[in-house]
Amino acid sequence: MLRNRALSIAFFWLLAACCAVAIGGCSGIGGGSERSPAEESQAGEEANRAEEATLHKEEATEVAQDREELSVIESKTREEEAETTAKKTEAAAKARAKKREKAAERAVKRKEKEADAKRLAAEEKAKSQTKTTTGQSTPTAPAKPGTETTKKTTNPPPAVTVPSGSG
User: Residue 40: what pLDDT?
Assistant: First the structure.
């Protein structure tokens, strides 16, 4: 951009110099009508105004192009930022989903272990109840010689029926 501006300025001064040489050289040469110095200065001013107008238009065109390029760059930047944000959001969502899945799996395993523990406890309870009801008991330690162990069995109390008498 700076290079273009420098070239525009150099072109302007080169054109101004050429016009000045042409105006100065043409006024002294030839048999045509001679201009007065006031007309020459007026023509020079008009030429300068025309050159300035041309330069102003070129600068306005450059500014418009620069704005358009800047707009394109900014839109690309916004688009890239939006894509990055979307990727981060997606990655965070995936991480949360994976975390929830693992928590659910752990909960299922914990529940399975609890269910197995309850089932085993129930089986043990059922085994112990059947052993006590059948009257079988398993010794936990071997009996020492000289020590007597007595087995105690619990018998249900006898059923007594009382006659109802009217007598």
Answer: 76
Give the chain's radius of gyration (CA, Å): 56
Where helices occur in 1-137 by DSSP H, the ranges are 2-28, 37-134
Report d(CA 137, CA 156) in Å as an integer.
Answer: 17
- What whole-number distance in Å separates Cα of residue 161 and Cα of residue 149? 36
Whether the Cβ atoms of residue 23 and residue 44 lie closer than 8 Å to each other: yes
| pTM for this model (two decimals) | 0.38
Residues 63-79: what's their mean pLDDT?
96
165: exposed, middle or buried (C-beta count within 10 Å: 0-12, 13-18, 19+)? Answer: exposed
Neighbours of 47 (CB within 10 A): 16
Residue 27 has pLDDT above 80, yes or no: no
Give the DSSP letter string of 99-155. Answer: HHHHHHHHHHHHHHHHHHHHHHHHHHHHHHHHHHHHT----SSPPPTT-------PP
